[in-house]
Specification:
Layout lengths: L14 E2 L10 E2 H13 L19 H8 L2 H17 L4 E3 L8 E3 L6 E3 L6 E3 L12 H4 L2 H9 L2 E3 L6 E3 L6 E3 L6 E3 L32 H52 L9 H38 L2
Length: about 325
């Protein structure tokens, strides 16, 4: 039989059907166990589906236990599932006592919570130690804020649960509400959020630690050079060309002037040779003609750009 993950052939006793009744996709024991272990380690244990691409059939507890064949990971799965179910209750708070982690059910109007396991008193709103004479914001001291920053802890922008980022890319998924967001800007994640041309996201920063200084201006420059580079190069060329023409034109004009003057002094100049005024008039007309070339080309480029924009937006 052929495994649908590693595409290797194995004997039937080394294969497993994750969902025996819903679908007939088959995988080898090694692949399905690694698939489930990865999900459990990442705390993605809600609505585990068949690993076959496009299959949406869900695995129940019996299927997961049968496929895992590992009691340690299965108990971890059960524990994570219970925690997820408790986290779905907005009135549940977890005791912050060292080694306790006992869930505390808050009641309506009850601000001061007491753990029935270790007796620790804590605040219902900020989940810190009980602060009778202080508001929640004042109770969070600077040392606590430093610890939060040091261990890269942020709040989910949707459910406000605390999330710690250990490694990997900046595409985050909240284990409590499954909200997907960017770790850097905390905006909702989209497939184009890290694209180089997306100036409204975090372009090129999928694995960055922080947003670089003036990064948005670099992105705008990249965007302009990528999509309007041809026009910008032509505009720069048109600005430099008249200056070069004036410099070389004046140089040639100056050379001819002294050349003819030298000839006139030595007696070699003929009466039919063009006068200096005629030469100056010729080069003046030539320079004016060259100076008008950029203007004409800019008009043509603007017309072409307008037609291109019109074609794009009026499809």
């Amino acid at each position: 039989f052929l495994c649908n993950i590693c595409f290797s052939e194995s004997k039937i006793e080394d294969m497993v059907f994750p969902t025996q009744k819903s679908c007939n996709h088959i995988f080898c024991n090694t692949c399905i166990q690694q698939y489930l272990k990865n999900l459990i380690q990442q705390n993605q244990i809600l609505n585990i589906s068949c690993p076959q691409y496009g299959c949406e059939q869900k695995l129940n507890e019996k299927d997961i236990k049968r496929c895992l064949q590992n009691e340690e990971f299965f108990q971890k799965y059960i524990k994570f599932k219970q925690i997820m179910q408790l986290n779905s209750d907005p009135d549940i708070r977890w005791c912050i006592g060292i080694g306790c982690e006992n869930p505390i059910k808050g009641e309506k109007g009850q601000i001061q919570l007491t753990c029935n396991k270790c007796g620790l008193q804590m605040c219902y709103f900020c989940t810190n130690l009980w602060h009778e004479d202080l508001d929640c914001e004042s109770a969070i001291d600077s040392e606590y804020k430093i610890i939060i920053q040091k261990f890269q802890v942020k709040n989910c922008p949707q459910c406000l649960s605390r999330i710690q980022k250990s490694e990997g890319c900046n595409h985050m998924k909240c284990p409590r509400c499954s909200h997907q967001f960017c770790w850097l800007c905390l905006k909702k994640y989209t497939t184009s959020h890290y694209n180089q041309s997306n100036i409204f996201g975090c372009p090129g920063l999928q694995f960055a630690q922080v947003i670089p200084y003036l990064h948005i201006y670099k992105v705008i420059l990249y965007y302009l050079l990528t999509y309007f580079g041809f026009f910008l190069h032509w505009a720069g060329f048109m600005l430099v060309l008249p200056l070069l023409c004036v410099i070389f034109g004046l140089g040639i004009l100056n050379f001819l002037y002294f050349y003819l003057k030298h000839k006139s002094y030595t007696g070699y100049i003929c009466s039919d040779i063009l006068s200096f005024k005629e030469i100056f008039k010729f080069f003046f007309i030539l320079i004016i003609s060259v100076l008008t070339i950029p203007i004409n080309l800019c008009i043509l480029l603007m017309l072409g750009f307008f037609l291109l924009i019109k074609k794009i937006f009026l499809k």
